[in-house]
């Protein structure tokens, strides 16, 4: 029983990281049909920003606050310098350019922070283990789960209960009609892009104490994140939640129950979804 | 009100409109008629900035809007009811309306309450999803949504397309009511009877430019023009 609870919590924790990464990617794609393959690199940047901020401030929370801000700023630069110009360039050019960005970021981070794995300590508030459902589980990982749930709830309220949420959903449904009602869709995209970047940065900062911080950590998580987006359905919050949970749990349980199949299982899931529900489980566009 | 001068536009390399000049006077209803593919919808899209004008001027109240961005054109006072209605499916009926009313000042002529009184059918549909409406309800919502932007000019692209005769009559009554209130409208229609019953002026587009213009009364007697440009 303990085994199942611990693995379920592990799965949940991985799901939350995947969620923080995929929600930005999927809403950006849904809103503007823009494929940003460099999203994983922004996650890495968030982790490194957290490492530096922790070193500078001496506290975990310095990194926790600074990383999302720093990555959002990187998003502003990326958007105004590159993405705005590439909006009408077509998916092939976008994929190639953002794919190229992965390597640019990879080397920039290698030059700045070096090749060796770095790490930061868990916040003192959440060190050690906590008793949950009869098992002792690392408190910091419970914090990740709680944070992920809080972000889900916050985004759900934002998207379904506020005017800006209605504007985003309208933009995902039909950006031209949204513009015909006087909505500045371009600015909306910019805001959503920056929020997506901040969440990627947050994911990096949160992951830094549990995973080692290396230049290629973003490329490792990019594929599962893209799979989450495709399984969940482009542009939808519900899809990102469902996709993250499925991929997180299959990856976690696959690794312990059938290690020889672990790497294949999420691709099998992806293939199954693409065959039976090509638009994903909860596509934003009906 | 709307003043199009020597407009050239189309879809990428495909030219559709070459040198269209058209005027819609304030407080009047103008019907744009023409065969399928004549360029009526294209003209509407060019006015909204959804298609780029490669040449020419589009003025609203004397202000050139050609080349401006769509949201900016909408904010300059044009309400647009597209041919495909384009109700946002993931928004409720109420959200569809509130989104349009977002920028209108508090004391505007059109408020949520007023459009619901104007289209009572929408009243008990407010919490329905935009994807749960009949064709007629979608059309009413599309018009209500455009009105909530409190436009000085209303563009209607084929408002009767695909609707049952009884709904067409309802839409006609509502648009006639708007006309009595002095709303300036530009209407694209295939339905000759509907268009000429509602419009004061008629503008026929053929082969990408003005083929004929006059009043609704005149066009009814000009069977030669009808035969040549409308095929009725």
Features:
heterodimer, A: 286 residues, mainly alpha, two-stranded antiparallel ribbon, 11 helices, globular, B: 232 residues, alpha/beta, Rossmann fold, six-stranded mixed beta sheet, four-stranded antiparallel beta sheet, 9 helices, 10 strands, 35% helix, 27% strand
| Count of individual domains of chain B | 1
Number of E-type strands of chain B? 10
Q: Would you count the extended β strands of chain A for me?
A: 2
Report the mean per-residue pLDDT of chain B as an integer. 93
Share in helix of chain A: over 70%
Strand content of chain B: 25-35%
Task: Please sum up the structure shown.
The complex is a heterodimer of chains A (286) and B (232). Chain A has 286 residues and is mainly alpha-helical.
What does this structure look like?
The complex is a heterodimer of chains A (286) and B (232). Chain A is mostly helical. Chain A has a domain at 20-216. Chain A contains 11 helices and 2 strands. In chain A, strands 1-2 form a two-stranded antiparallel sheet. The N and C termini of chain A lie far apart (41 Å). A 6-stranded mixed beta sheet of chain B has the order 6-7-8-3-9-10, with helices on both faces. In chain B, strands 2-1-4-5 form a 4-stranded antiparallel beta sheet, covered by helices on one side. Chain B has 232 residues and is of the alpha/beta class. In chain B, helix 3 (93-101) runs parallel beside helix 5 (135-148). The longest helix of chain B has 16 residues, at 165-180. Classes of the chains: A mainly alpha (286), B alpha/beta (232). At the A-B interface, helix 6 and helix 7 of A face helix 2 and helix 3 of B.
